[in-house]
């Protein structure tokens, strides 16, 4: 009888003191008695930078994902509020919040998938290269935490500039002796999402029926949509190719300018990140035929990192596909992309090695 009473009190306390807003010792209640142990079978996912413009909608979308059993939300500010808010959603994932560097270890311990949108957003007139000095240090610190707490987790890196932050993460992991190239994935899904949307507009079809491979990197001319390989098959005019390529490459700038100083592409990025995370979780579950584009360590080109189609599985990016046949326009674009990518990759590597 007393045990039943204690359990009921524990359940009530879990609502009055949401998991992640650390319960004080004086309450006499322990997390182990509450649902905070985990609700449903699934995977443990951490979002680092959960209180930001991308992090908040991403946290909501991951809370909605039935493959997530435990969701850790970390940031250096405002994560308790985001945690309380998201935790009220009636989905099965248990939400825990973590605030500040001293709680980073707890946020990361035992995670299967770590998603990193942390960093400052791009503002009007700011290039992705301008973001480097600020975001590079943030990514380095978070990846050092991953090394110590969940070295076998799959890492989805969103923080811009991705062309440089992925090499930074790789160098941190290499230094620690934990680097597994299959488990470090730069998220370029927004370029694919935009390409599918813009191409669908031209074709007059539903975007869910369109698949455009986007290779290269995740900034400006490094973003190379392979319109010759679009599904369903379609032959675009030269003007359509130029229009679509330019719009896909400059989609981020389109949003930054439209928001007129109020932010960057946060909602569409959160959608794309959640979509990509879902494919990673389905790969972890063992689903077959999961293929998406991502910026990964590869030998597809002479560059050490390159975005291309990968097959996702229990080990992460288990297979990297070749580019396939390119037309003259795409071959020209590829050379421009590689030139730009080479300097961005080197900048990331040098940041850690200096």
Automatic annotation (TrEMBL):
One of its GO terms (molecular function) is L-malate dehydrogenase (NAD+) activity. It is found in: Peroxisome. Residues 44-186 form the Lactate/malate dehydrogenase N-terminal domain. Pfam families: Ldh_1_C, Ldh_1_N. NAD(+) binds at residues 49-55, 75, 135, 158-160, 269. Belongs to the LDH/MDH superfamily. MDH type 1 family. CDD domains: MDH_glyoxysomal_mitochondrial (cd01337). PROSITE patterns: MDH (PS00068). The active site is at 218 (proton acceptor). Its EC number is 1.1.1.37. It comes from Amborella trichopoda. Keywords: Glyoxylate bypass, NAD, Oxidoreductase, Peroxisome, Tricarboxylic acid cycle. It catalyses: (S)-malate + NAD(+) = oxaloacetate + NADH + H(+). It comes from the Eukaryota. This is Malate dehydrogenase. GO terms for biological process: glyoxylate cycle; malate metabolic process; tricarboxylic acid cycle. Residues 188-351 form the Lactate/malate dehydrogenase C-terminal domain. Its main location: other. Substrate binds at residues 122, 128, 160, 194. One of its GO terms (cellular component) is cytoplasm. Homodimer.
């Amino acid at each position: 009888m007393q045990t039943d009473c204690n359990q009921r009190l524990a359940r009530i306390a879990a609502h009055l003191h949401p998991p992640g807003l650390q319960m004080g010792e004086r309450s006499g209640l322990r997390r182990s008695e509450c649902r905070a142990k985990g609700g449903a079978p699934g995977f443990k996912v951490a979002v680092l930078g959960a209180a930001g413009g991308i992090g908040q909608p991403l946290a909501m979308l991951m809370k909605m994902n039935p493959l997530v059993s435990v969701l850790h939300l970390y940031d250096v500010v405002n994560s308790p509020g985001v945690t309380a808010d998201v935790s009220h959603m009636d989905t099965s994932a248990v939400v825990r919040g973590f605030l500040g560097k001293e709680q980073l270890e707890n946020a990361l311990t035992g995670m299967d998938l770590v998603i990193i949108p942390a960093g400052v957003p791009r503002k009007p007139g700011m290039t992705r290269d301008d973001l480097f000095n600020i975001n590079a240090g943030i990514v380095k610190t978070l990846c050092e935490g991953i090394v110590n707490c969940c070295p076998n987790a799959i890492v989805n890196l969103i923080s811009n500039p991705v062309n440089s932050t992925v090499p930074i993460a790789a160098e941190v992991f290499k230094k620690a002796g934990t680097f597994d190239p299959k488990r470090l994935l730069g998220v370029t899904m927004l370029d694919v999402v935009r390409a599918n949307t813009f191409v669908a507009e031209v074709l007059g079809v539903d975007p869910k029926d369109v698949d455009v491979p986007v290779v290269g990197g995740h900034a400006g001319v490094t973003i190379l949509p392979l319109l010759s390989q679009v599904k369903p098959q379609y032959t675009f005019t030269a003007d359509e190719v130029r229009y679509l390529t330019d719009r896909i490459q400059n989609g981020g700038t389109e949003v930054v300018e439209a928001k007129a100083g109020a932010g960057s592409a946060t909602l569409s990025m959160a959608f794309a990140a959640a979509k990509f995370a879902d494919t990673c979780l389905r790969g972890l579950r063992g689903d077959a035929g999961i293929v998406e584009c991502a910026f990964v360590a590869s030998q597809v080109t002479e560059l050490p990192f390159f975005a291309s189609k990968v097959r996702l599985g229990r080990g992460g990016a288990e297979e990297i596909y070749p580019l396939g046949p390119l037309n003259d326009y795409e071959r020209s674009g590829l050379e421009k992309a590689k030139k730009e990518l080479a300097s961005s990759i080197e900048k990331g590597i040098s940041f850690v090695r200096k």
